[in-house]
UniProtKB/TrEMBL annotation:
Belongs to the protoporphyrinogen/coproporphyrinogen oxidase family. Coproporphyrinogen III oxidase subfamily. One of its GO terms (cellular component) is cytoplasm. The keyword Oxidoreductase applies. This is Coproporphyrinogen III oxidase. One of its GO terms (biological process) is heme biosynthetic process. One of its GO terms (molecular function) is oxygen-dependent protoporphyrinogen oxidase activity. Its cofactor is FAD. Residues 23-439 form the Amine oxidase domain. The keyword Thylakoid does not apply. Pathway: Porphyrin-containing compound metabolism; protoheme biosynthesis. Involved in coproporphyrin-dependent heme b biosynthesis. Catalyzes the oxidation of coproporphyrinogen III to coproporphyrin III. It comes from Oceanipulchritudo coccoides.
Length: 460
């Protein structure tokens, strides 16, 4: 008997296909859909949101990944408003402007202003004079520089060790000796490049704004009543945008007419524009045809250290400390197990049930990767050992939730421009292909959204 003839199904067509349903993919899809583009998002896992993972357990609202979002631009602020999230938005408690740092075993508030810097017990008088000499230090002629080199040169080593290095650890779980000031903190780098000094540059910018009547956007830390998952849900509510989860990409091919065809779970999808927003390590799973695959695999790898997040719940009476701040950071000089601890239920009271408090702790990162990979019981034991004398904790936590991130946050190390150039070259050589994600333009949620908006803005 003759085998039955099979006719390939015509491919379903979109303007844009996006691979990866994290915040980068969803925000890009939403912004393009708002411009009337037909967009389809393909996500491998069974849920959308990527690193954003909110759950409710025993009355605690647990964020396994990002805890909050620091909105850094007017564009992102307006976008959240357009998503209809104003009534759901919760602003961080004002007290969370205060951040603690450990020095010689004690908790000291981190100075958040110039005046605070002058009066803080964190630095001795000589170290403070060194800090105030910042405007008189010439600007670097280097094309890039590590955070350690930049901060020591401009502000002195004390400010590095008991200030910036701990903040760097809080944002990137990174190593200031390796992180690039130019790529990890571009605003700081640009102040030096543009004005020759950070203090002088900040003052000049303030004067310029006063003269022109422009006001700078004041960053705001926010979340949502039911957690960051509300952002994910809102991003998906756009008419021209469709999503699929649990998708297995079998192949990705570019035809001579410039169309991209993605074969996914037995279906063929086609679009003129293909945006890959998966983590870098997932590129090899996507089965691109040659030569795109070779080029993607040739992109210089960037470090993503392992990290554990541990949410601990306690009865309020178990903790003597008022928990009056954002949290506490452990500078590397203090040689502690924990990188830092956020007072989650101080920042957002709905994170813990009545009478309880929630702390979110970070363990691992570039400088202590092995700690981040330890089993839950050991993590709890060592973390509580770090925190108990500082916060006056008695007894064991009544609740815990541990999440392990084997490849947590991309490190924007010195030399990051080699990586960025490689991405640009691929995009130039294969029109219609775009490689986006938290490894480009900043890892924060606000950065990911800002980049998505800027990208969408540039599309015809
Ligand atoms: C522990 C932790 C804490 C953080 N804390 C904060 C914070 O407090 N505030 C803040 O602003 N930022 C924080 N960040 C950073 C921020 O959460 C991330 O940078 C951001 O969410 C990354 O979004 P993304 O879409 O670029 O990548 P991801 O969220 O990684 O999304 C990529 C998506 O691609 C999917 N994918 C992978 N392979 C495939 C495939 N083969 N096919 C299809 N899809 C695939 C993944 O499943 C995932 O959904 C934190 C990050 C971590 C890990």
């Amino acid at each position: 008997m003759e085998p039955e003839a099979t006719h390939p199904q015509p491919a379903e067509s979109f303007d844009t296909i996006i691979i990866g349903g994290g915040i980068t993919g969803l925000a890009t899809a939403n912004a393009l859909a708002k411009k009337g583009k037909r967009v389809h998002v393909i996500e491998k896992s069974s849920r959308l949101g990527g690193a954003v993972q909110t759950t409710n357990m025993e009355g605690f609202l647990v964020e396994a990944g990002p805890n909050s979002m620091l909105v850094k631009s007017e564009a992102v602020w307006n976008f959240i408003h357009e998503l209809g999230l104003d009534d759901e938005r919760v602003d961080a408690n004002e007290i969370s402007n205060k951040r603690y740092l450990i020095k010689k075993g004690g908790m000291v508030p981190l100075p958040m202003s110039l005046v605070g810097g002058v009066t803080t017990p964190l630095y001795n008088p000589l170290e403070k004079v060194r800090l105030l000499a910042e405007p008189f230090i010439g600007k670097s002629k280097l094309a890039d520089e590590s955070v350690t080199s930049f901060v020591s040169r401009r502000m002195g080593p004390a400010f590095l060790e008991y200030g910036i290095s701990a903040l760097v650890s809080g944002i990137f779980a990174g190593d200031p000796d390796c992180l690039s000031i130019r790529h990890a903190f571009p605003k700081v780098w640009n102040l030096e490049q543009g004005y020759g000094s950070l203090i002088g540059g900040a003052l000049k910018l303030k004067r310029e704004r006063k003269r022109t009547g422009k006001t700078a956007f004041k960053s705001r830390m926010i979340s949502f009543r039911k957690g960051l998952k509300e952002l994910v849900e809102a991003l998906c509510r756009e008419d021209c945008m469709t999503t699929r989860t649990g998708a297995n990409i079998e192949s990705v091919r570019r035809s001579d007419d410039g169309q991209w065809t993605v074969n996914v779970s037995g279906e063929a999808l086609q679009a003129k524009q293909l945006i890959v927003t998966t983590p870098l390590h997932a590129h090899e799973e996507l089965s691109f045809e040659r030569p795109v695959e070779e080029r993607l695999l040739d992109i210089p790898r960037i470090d993503h250290p392992p990290l554990s997040t541990l949410v601990l719940g306690f009865d309020r009476e178990q903790i003597a400390h008022p928990l009056d701040g954002f949290g506490v950071l452990f500078p590397r000089m203090e040689k502690r197990f924990t990188l830092g601890c956020i007072f989650s239920s101080t920042i957002f009271p709905e994170r813990a049930p009545e009478g309880k408090v929630a702390l979110m702790c970070f363990i691992g990162g570039v400088q202590q990767p092995e700690n981040g990979c330890l089993p839950t019981e050991e993590l709890i034991k060592e973390t509580v050992k770090d925190l108990a004398p500082l916060l006056g904790i008695t007894g064991d936590p009544c609740f815990h939730s541990h999440s392990f991130w084997p490849l947590a946050i991309p490190q924007y190390n010195v030399g990051h421009s080699v990586f960025l150039n490689a991405l640009e070259e691929i995009e130039f050589d294969f029109p219609g292909l775009h490689i986006r994600g938290n490894f480009r333009g900043g890892p924060g949620l606000s950065d990911c959204i800002d980049n998505a908006l800027q990208f969408a803005e540039k599309q015809a």
